[in-house]
Amino acid sequence: MFLQNKISLRQNILSNFVGQGWSFLVGMIAVPFYLRFLGVEGYGLVGFYGALRAVFNSFLDFGLTVTINREIARYVASPTKIGQTRDLVRTLEIAYWFIGLLLGFLVCLGAPLIANYWVNSEAIPTTTVKNVIIIMGIITFVQWPLTFYQGGLIGLQKIVLLNGVNVMVATLRGVGGILAVWLFSPPIIAFFVWQVILSLFQLGVTTYLLWHNLPQSNNTPRFRASIVGEIWKFAVGMSGTSFFSFFLSQTDKIVLSKLLTLEQFGYYSLAVTLNEQLQLVNAQITQPLFPRFSALISQKDNESLRNLYHKACQLVSVVILPVAGTAAFFSRELIYLWTQDMKIASIVAPIATLLFAGTALLNMIEIPFSLAIAYGWVKFTFLRSLILSSLIVPLMILLSSKYGGVGAALTWVLLNLGQVIVLPFIIHHRFLKSDLKRWYIFDVGIPAVFSLAMLSLARRLMPLELPFLQYAITIGLVVITIFLVAVLSAREARVWGLELIGNYFQKRT
Description:
Layout: H1 2-59, H2 64-77, H3 85-117, H4 126-155, H5 159-183, H6 187-213, H7 225-259, H8 262-299, H9 302-329, H10 331-339, H11 342-364, H12 366-374, H13 378-403, H14 405-430, H15 436-461, H16 468-489, H17 491-508
Helix pairs in contact: 1-4, 1-5, 1-7, 1-8, 2-3, 2-4, 2-7, 2-8, 3-4, 4-6, 5-6, 7-13, 8-9, 8-11, 8-12, 9-11, 9-15, 9-16, 9-17, 10-11, 11-14, 13-14, 15-16
């Protein structure tokens, strides 16, 4: 049984990378077309919607997404609760639909105020901005329950299936978005109308898949107050965490959308778009691991939990350090390859470099943090979010007012550096007490030292000016080289890689 789970986890992680890799590729291809047909200001509105959506997902999620993920994993792993899984989903589902309707209505109602007093548009008419924000409200209503059903599929560990849907939707989003801004006018309205259509389609498919894959029951699913009584403490704790996590992830966009012109905010949004793709790389590992952590804790299988924890930490290191390091050291070249515009690359690169560095630091502590949540230690997650959010707001305003987008990105680096220094001590003191040294040295330290040394050498050897194709080939070779160095320096990742190679050749023979 454990071997099957192990294989399933590998399949889930690999499918996540395939799915996210495809979504990333489609998104990167689409953005230059959006810039061409929408302009930088139009793309600034796309960035504003990203901030608005993140506000709702983080600020007003009430902890339900993490709750449904954790509780489904626990219910399915427990013989005494597996028959109640459908009641669990129906109970939380009702709350999610109600919240989505309320939030969508509030966005539509506030559209005139946002268009007139918040968004600083110089080229796009205020009426158009208002209409776009109303459409954003409709998308918010549709997208809100979608995140719930996706969390349910993750809790069931049906991640391969979920990625199949995401690949299809990403393809339709990119191709349809390009056609919409190219063929219809005004293009910014056409872009968001297409998002509404696609969101409705994705919601319908994902809802069906979750209910189809839930454990069967002879009873009709119903709302049960007793389930709320069982999970309310965890949900409330995660609600507080979600409330303050908003400030950690979205303060930069909220502050800068007010301080900067829409054009300047558009440049910052480009850097954020790249950084969000980097954040999603780590999510492809942590997403399948969280329900597995929850299940192992429910089964009290501590040895399997410890082994999985260290393998996961090293896997994050050998994946994130090469990607984030190359992106940070060669940000100007990467943005030039992406946009084919050296002016845009020169403006965006300093912001992107700092964002990449901060995200790399954050990714190093994501696995320990996921472990704490899987154990249900919501008091810690709440206090962490409270302390960090109380620091980020004044620091963000201070540095952003003085340095603009670069100041916002610097704030991101400083806060995540502080987390890497402090949080591992706290988490390992409570769980896996004897493993702190192993985490710092073998899981993170050695891969980081070797990766940074090789990246510094590569940066020194890289000429300042190269033809387009040579830039692409050189950066690709740097990523591959750093990845091999990181794998060789991390024992668990090295063993896992050798197992995969051995299994491949064994099947061939």
